[in-house]
Write a structure and sequence with these properties.
The structure is a homodimer. The first copy, chain A, has about 200 residues and is of the alpha/beta class. Chain A is built from 9 helices and 7 strands. The longest helix of chain A has 17 residues. Chain A is elongated. Bound molecules: zinc ion (2 copies).
Chain lengths: ~200, ~200
């Protein structure tokens, strides 16, 4: 049986989703066609819309449909003088879900990885340094992942902080080494925040 | 953190896929936005196209973008005089993947389920009966699932066959009771075909 072109294309396209192999993709395609065409159509529109409408906040770089996100626009958050640096928007989401951090964020959208051509500029560190030099930030919480690249990136940013006389701390306890920040539960994440240590200047 | 509307809609829409819960949907959405916008856009188009372009074959009711599918149009298949009745297009796919069945199909797109208001007409048995009465079919292979509803449906169709003097057989060996036809491997499926029994007339 030759599947129709549109069906083959759909099965192939479904595999862009992490965790969806060829067999799962086929089952999803047939499920939607047989039992949930409305859901499939809605998903098609939602994807098309999201991929074009969702950009990045000009200030913190997280996902945003406006020039600036709600967090960056909040005067309460601005007054906190605290900036948490994370690798990805999912990390912002994980921290916000604890409801206990009330400062600003800066989202790198990655980490330093010279081997892949990802230097300071690629992860927005020029924008971050400008922000640090402008004043208003007293402490930078380095919440990059506890991987080699995450640590290297945190260390690099700590240097930027020192240069601009801004305190830098690194979240510490609770996050399993090699793990991913956004997979950690809220309580562990809050332990990591309260157990943060000042990064000493060399 | 309030997620943007488009992002919330995307996460919600992703859940139309079987096996995708809220956490998986969130991870998929962020993955596509962060690392594979091209894949996300292609999936959006593929879904939109598939949900409108893919209809049903007028003859066998399987998924098809033309009025009739390739199998129904094949004179070799027509000459076989054998018609295999299955519940869903995925069953056709599973049987075709064995490469050993060379007859025609009829796809019920479900099974009899009076409690859900699914009677003979809802699963196309009026179309099937018309086909049987027209001649050209010598044997109907009843390959509905080995569930209570599948057995009931097979029995009902066997009666239609008897009425029209067409032989009816039920696939038997190898398919685990309560299992699903399209999850069985090709060899087991072929055993089930060769071990089919004639359904005796009451
Ligand atoms: Zn922002
Ligand atoms: Zn057909």
């Amino acid at each position: 049986m030759q599947l129709s072109d549109s069906l083959n294309q759909l099965i192939e396209a479904l595999r862009c989703q992490p965790g969806i192999g060829p067999k799962s993709a086929q089952r999803i395609a047939f499920h939607l066609l047989e039992r949930d065409r409305k859901g499939g159509t809605q998903l098609g529109s939602a994807l098309t819309k999201a991929m074009t409408a969702i950009g990045h906040c000009q200030t913190c770089r997280t996902f945003c449909e406006q020039p600036q996100c709600d967090i960056c626009l909040s005067t309460k958050r601005q007054d906190s003088g605290t900036l948490c640096v994370v690798e990805s928007p999912t990390d912002v989401l994980a921290i916000e879900q604890t409801g206990q951090y009330l400062g600003l964020y800066f989202v790198l959208m990655g980490h330093l990885s010279p081997i892949d051509g990802i230097g300071p500029k690629e992860i927005g560190l020029d924008v971050l340094e400008q922000k640090l030099s402008q004043g208003g930030i007293n402490e930078v919480i380095l919440a990059t992942n506890p991987s080699v690249e995450g640590e290297t990136t945190a260390y690099y940013i700590a240097q930027l902080c020192h240069k601009n006389n801004v305190g830098a701390s690194r979240i510490a306890h609770g996050i399993p080494v090699g793990g991913e920040l956004d997979l950690v539960d809220g309580r562990t994440l809050m332990h990591a925040f309260s157990g943060r240590r000042v990064v000493t200047q060399e």
